[in-house]
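Inverse folding, one chain.
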């Protein structure tokens, strides 16, 4: 039993007490006190931190302003106004604003705009739960009498002794759902609800589920505008509206592992902290930005780059202008496949301006051609161009998915099976990084069930994993590579007859409904000797960059390039033999040279083939000419 100050005051107002006359002079009568006590929302009890009356805090101005999601709030008030089954389970991913919905309802209740007969909304303190969960829940139930008890992460009370965090309080929570003393609003995720709560009859029968979706970009911008005064007060800075809008767009695109609005709020808070740091000269490690207290779009871009690893120049570029020069950009990396580059660019540009089904992937392509002609290189170039980095690509070798059991590696095992919590290689990666190139290499080697999954991804733009969670593929590019028809395509120019001959072989492997759902079948021709020479120059530039990092400057003569091309006795394998030639004749001798001579930084190493018998490395070290090879 707990005796609080309101109880003492009621006793002091009784007519038999000497203090009653004094209290009556100020209008404090037993009836007035009883009326106030009966309205729990008017009394802020000292509960040693066990509970928090959110409605009372809203009335005193201690609750921050929140965005009202009217449709969801209308549904909540509708259910709470029913005569039966008034308990609510808010279902949705962590970070979509389920807790904020409860606080929004408390604000409405504080203004007298909430459900009739409900005066308070009580939340149990997390520390009190950890100290004594039974005591905390009982205190919460007592405080929430004739009101609402709000329980975030309701699943923590269920799941048995292995999964449940607060097993001792589980029976009390179940009884609360069966009783009508107070209404329960709990939050959880779809997965936790299905695994732990759906089988609890007391909850399933006496509560109703409201699914809370991720807010739209426009809604999230409005949410941040409401938070703007608090940000400015907390960090002592000014925030521009452009910065908030850009933060939401960046969060949606590059931080989509966390849903809106949480991802956008995290980005804005991180940016605000960075701006605040720039005002503090005593910090050991500070950032390089203007020493002002204005949080603008440039600050958001810099912070997003730090959080995602995407280069700042990629984030800041105007996307319309960038896609206009898409063909030229990719041709700088991919030599000899102009038709393939044009075909892919046309399809992606069409999708990027919005002329595609919003549910489907940005593009779905089948790359055909001999080995070493640039199929994988084009996928890497697309990843760098579209998403800022080659790391934004998920390569899957389909030769590893030949049997039906390997399907679980893609989408994850069903709940209850071994490693079911790990998820699938495909679904988990796309869920964490939705803006990505998914490359299915040598797809004809995969099991037919894998092809059924690909059909669903290409047509519906989504895939359900082994645990029942849906992964969205609408912002991915799906690329399938195959060696089918490669013998027909081993020519420098692909004619209509050759194209039809290659497609005839492709149709023997792929079902018509699969081929019809692809955006484009891209055919790669064989590389000419001029193409190979250009590719060699491109690869040697990469070697030069690596040498620069070591402090050396590599210079290749025309004779050395011709000699290396002459060592390629397997032109039918495309550009891949060139890498082996560079590794054997350039990288390995250069490593010997560095170990023997250890030249100082800035040394120029000239690579030549003077007598056409091999490469010779010449450098000037300490005024003496040092050479290796030849």
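Residues assigned per position:
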């Amino acid at each position: 039993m707990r005796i609080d100050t309101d109880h003492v005051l009621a006793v002091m107002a009784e007519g038999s007490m000497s203090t009653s006359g004094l209290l009556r002079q100020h209008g404090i009568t037993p009836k007035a006190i009883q009326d106030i006590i009966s309205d729990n929302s008017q009394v802020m009890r000292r509960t040693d931190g066990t509970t928090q009356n959110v409605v009372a805090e809203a009335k005193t101005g201690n609750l921050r302003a929140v965005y009202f999601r009217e449709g969801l709030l209308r549904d909540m008030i509708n259910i709470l106004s029913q005569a039966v089954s008034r308990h609510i389970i808010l279902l949705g991913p962590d970070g979509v604003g389920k807790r904020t919905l409860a606080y929004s309802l408390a604000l409405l209740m504080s203004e007298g705009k909430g459900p009739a007969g409900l005066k308070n909304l009580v939340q149990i303190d997390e520390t009190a739960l950890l100290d004594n969960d039974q005591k905390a829940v009982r205190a919460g139930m007592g405080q929430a009498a004739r009101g609402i008890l709000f329980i975030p992460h309701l699943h923590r009370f269920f799941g048995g002794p292995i999964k449940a965090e607060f097993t001792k309080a589980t029976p009390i929570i179940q009884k609360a759902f069966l009783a009508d003393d107070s209404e329960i609003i709990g939050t959880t995720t779809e997965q936790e609800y299905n695994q732990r709560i759906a089988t609890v009859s007391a909850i399933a029968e006496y509560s109703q589920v409201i699914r809370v979706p991720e807010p739209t970009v426009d809604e999230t911008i409005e949410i941040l505008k409401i938070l703007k005064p608090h940000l400015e007060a907390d960090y002592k800075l000014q925030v521009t509206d452009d910065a908030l809008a850009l933060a939401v767009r960046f969060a949606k695109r590059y931080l989509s592992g966390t849903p809106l609005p949480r991802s956008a709020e995290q980005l804005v808070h991180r940016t605000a902290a960075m701006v605040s740091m720039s005002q503090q000269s005593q910090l050991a490690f500070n950032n390089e930005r203007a020493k002002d207290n204005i949080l603008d779009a440039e600050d958001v871009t810099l912070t997003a780059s730090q959080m995602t690893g995407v280069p700042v120049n990629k984030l800041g570029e105007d996307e319309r202008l960038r896609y206009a020069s898409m063909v030229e950009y990719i041709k700088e990396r991919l030599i000899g496949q102009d038709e393939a580059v044009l075909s892919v660019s046309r399809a992606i540009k069409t999708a990027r301006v919005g002329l595609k089904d919003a549910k489907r992937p940005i593009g779905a392509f089948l790359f055909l051609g001999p080995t070493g002609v640039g199929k994988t290189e084009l996928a890497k170039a697309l990843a760098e161009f579209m998403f800022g980095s080659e790391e934004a690509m998920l390569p899957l070798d389909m030769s590893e998915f030949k049997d039906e059991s390997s399907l679980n590696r893609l989408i994850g095992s069903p709940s209850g099976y071994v490693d079911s919590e790990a998820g699938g290689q495909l679904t988990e990666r796309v869920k964490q990084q939705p803006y990505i190139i998914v490359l299915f290499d040598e797809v004809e080697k995969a099991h037919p069930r894998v092809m059924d999954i690909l059909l669903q991804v290409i047509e519906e733009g989504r895939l359900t994993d082994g645990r029942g969670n849906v992964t969205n593929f609408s912002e991915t590019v799906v690329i399938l590579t195959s060696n089918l028809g490669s013998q027909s395509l081993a020519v420098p120019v692909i004619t209509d007859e050759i194209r039809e001959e290659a497609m005839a072989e492709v149709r023997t492997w792929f079902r018509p409904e699969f081929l019809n759902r692809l955006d484009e079948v891209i055919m790669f021709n064989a590389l000419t000797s001029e193409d190979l020479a250009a590719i060699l120059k491109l690869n040697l530039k990469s070697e030069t960059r690596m040498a620069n990092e070591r402090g050396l400057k590599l210079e290749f003569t025309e004779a050395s390039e011709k000699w290396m091309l002459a060592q390629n006795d397997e032109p039918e394998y495309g550009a891949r033999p060139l890498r082996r030639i560079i590794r054997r004749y350039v990288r390995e001798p250069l490593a010997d040279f560095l170990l023997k001579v250890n030249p100082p930084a800035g040394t120029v190493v000239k690579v030549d083939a003077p007598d056409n018998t091999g490469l010779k490395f010449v450098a000037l070290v300490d005024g003496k000419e040092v050479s290796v090879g030849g």
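Confidence is low (pLDDT under 50) at residues 40-47. The two ends are 96 Å apart (CA to CA).
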